[in-house]
Batch of 2 targets.
Target 1
Amino acid sequence: MTTQSRDISTTMRALSSMDPDIMEGLVGARIENMEASGLSGREYALVKIAGLVGIDASPASYAWQVGFAKENGVTDEEILGVLVALSPTVGHARIVTAATELAFAMGFADDDEP
């Protein structure tokens, strides 16, 4: 394995395990991007959730974004509202997939619930 391959492998493992050093850099970039957007933390978080739905993001992305949204005062009702608002645009199939991932990220993944 080359040095470059080893570096890439190490970085990928750090990203996938949410290594604090790597995450700190990503959070710093997020803060800079949020400030540049001119949006409040709440608005920024809701837009980011909408973007994740639009690109059919990974479960880990939803978990991280929901945490950020909650830290910025976004309610469960507002997250549901994002799904309702996006449904005509992205389609019902994508909303069903996103709802499953968001429900898990929001702590609603209880098998006993209907």
Target 2
Amino acid sequence: MADATPVQMFHMEEKRKQYRRGSFYLKMCTLALFILVPFLFPSFKTVDLAVQIIIFGALVASFDILLGYTGILSFGHGMFFGMGAYCMAFFLGKYGMPSYTNLVLGFAAAAFFSAILAMLISLLTLRVKAIFFAMITLAIAELAIVLATKLSGLTGGEDGISFMTPGVFSVAFTTGTFMGVEITGKVITYYFILFSCTALFLAMLRFTHSPLGRVLQAIRDNEQRAEALGNRTFVYQSISITFGCVMAALIGCLYAMWMEYVNPESSLGVMTIMLDVLLMVIIGGMGTLYGGIIGAAFLKITQTFLPDLQTLAKDLFPEAVLLHNILERWLLLFGILFILVVIFFPKGVIGSVMDRGSRKRNVPKRQ
């Protein structure tokens, strides 16, 4: 057997080191925390918050493949998220019945149709660059919302579609208690979403760390140079868009399973979905994937608990009317927090931490 080359030896040493780094243990602790959430914080509000962080963390990672790793700004990414949600609603409610077969068909249909649509959009619009591509995808996303609203016979219109999940995922399902927590269909659905999003996230990590992912980063940094090296940039960009959109559609299916309801505003809305995703990317850091989890946690926690501050202030300081009026406008507080994050973490939380760590490693030691 031939001896390993210096490059192969370097990669093997890096693989051995990655399981001894502090970041690896931090990731494992984060996963363990999400696993223990139903037992540590059994209230539905907390479990629902954890699910929102998990789902949107994975969705932001799928969007970051386009923006952070390929340099493509698309405002239509949320449309594929909604497409996955509607596929699940069609098979389990509108045109089908709750069954495991229809559940699998919902995932398969979401992956298939999102891949076809993503390839068509990339083939028709990818020749247009920068902000013009973003505007075209925004127009397509708005068209999808209009169609979902007007075609009420197909999509339920603004009323949306309510449905039930099958078997162990059903709300009515229960199998007793474990460690003082009743194991219901919602708890099982929570763990299904957690492990499914983890698997999708690992697939996205593998995609970005593959040779294809390296080419995408080269295209992001300098498309002309990457093309001069012989890379078919148009093909690679199409693959990136298709892969990211398929991931978004599958995550949309998981979102529909948890909500058991879809409508145009909650699953396709540009302002409700894409705006949140963009804020999460900025907060977490572009080109990091893990930043999506930080961004989703920040945004969802603030959106969940900041509106409750006024009630808390009224209980603690009943005479402080000015404080009550300030806390009533919780979006102002969120804006201040967002500005502070951008000021202190200009490349996002993960991006800024990684940048500072790399600069420290490159600083020469004093003799």
